[in-house]
Amino acid sequence: MKHLLTLKDLSQDEILAIIDLAINLKQDYTPYQDALKGQSVVTLFEKPSLRTRVSFDIGINKLGGHAVYLDQQNGALGQRESVKDFALNLSRWCDAIVARVFDHNTLVELKTHASVPVVNSLCDLYHPCQALADFVTLKEHCGDLSQVTLGYVGDGNNVTHSLMFAAAKLGAKMVVVCPPGHFPDGNMVLEAKQIAAEHGGELVLSSDVAALEGCDALYADTWISMGDDTPLSAIQAKFQAYQINAQLLASSGAKYVLHCQPAHREVEITSEVMDGPGSLILDQAENRMHAQNAVLLKLLA
Question: In 10 A of CB 245, how many CB atoms?
């Protein structure tokens, strides 16, 4: 494991090792408090962030390392100076680059020219750190991940892609329910289905919320991705039947609810469910830090 751009590049054993290490870290950081002593990690942000920025900054500190935050006050990455030169320069000073970017190709270029590990903290195609935190959370509450059935409801997006590949690698079952025309990328679906078959998992796609019956957990994300200026009024009627609410939770039989946040209460998820006894949403948010720290330890320690 030299970089983390997408979970489909990792083996089942590597993903399980990250999940187990994250759970160990959560229980006790003492053995790892100097693991990154003397090392610096650049956290590069093209997009706004709460959970990603804070969880990496504080998490790196917990491992004894130093986080350097770079925003894009001088313009988007690649405009003021090339992505190649960004990577070459940063590699002379830091020990890893964590990047939250608009375009996956930016990460590929960073990886190509950097001599240090590159971690994808979000792009248009994937959100691997989020998916790792989600499966850490599911393992804490459900146990054997190969026996978990996860239902994703709403717009197929970067989070959906990473969840599909994580579930496929882990041999879990994932049900993706989207309105027609809003499914995840077709090529990624085919690839994830093949990986799932190889690991004893299953990927099911449907536009019918009845397909969620038997899921252990339901997962929501915003219906409009960050940076998309589509007005809610233009898609709300199409998506309303896919809101996670008490009725959908009851009809599916799911015990738990997840959301990667930021959440739009009473839109893709109701406050009743978000704040209810089955909500694991804040567990997910906390576990971002532990999962990310596990990734950094695998890459740097």
Answer: 16
Residue 83 identity: V
Would you state the structure tokens that stand for residue 184, as one six-digit string?
């995840």
Check if the beta carbon of residue 65 is closer than 8 Å to that of residue 295. Answer: no
Residues 155 and 107 both lie in one domain: no
Q: Evaluate if residue 72 carries a pLDDT over 80.
A: no
Please report how many Cα atoms fall inside a 13 Å half-sphere around the Cα of residue 204, on the Cβ side: 20
Query: DSSP code of 183?
Result: P
pTM, full prediction: 0.97
Domain span at 52: 3-127+288-300
Question: Based on the domain organization, do 163 and 274 belong to the same domain?
Answer: yes
pLDDT, greater one: 224 or 44:
44
Rounded to a whole number of angstroms, the distance between the first and last alpha carbons of the chain is 12
User: In terms of Cα–Cα distance, which of 62, 49, 128 is closest to 289?
Assistant: 62
118-122 β-sheet, strand order: 66-70, 40-45, 96-100, 118-122
122 and 159 assigned to the same domain: no
Domain match, 90 and 143 both: no
Percent of the chain with pLDDT over 70: 98
Give pLDDT tens digits for 89-98: 999 999 999 9
Neighbours of 188 (CB within 10 A): 19
- What is the phi-psi region of residue 55: left when phi exceeds 0, alpha when psi lies from -120 to 50, beta otherwise? alpha
pLDDT of amino acid 48: 85
E strand or H helix that includes residue 224:
none
pLDDT digits (tens, 9 = 90+) for 7-39: 999 999 999 999 999 999 999 999 999 999 999
At residue 232, the pLDDT reads: 83
Q: How many residues does the chain have?
A: 301
The residues annotated as belonging to the active site are 100, 127, 130, 221, 260, 288
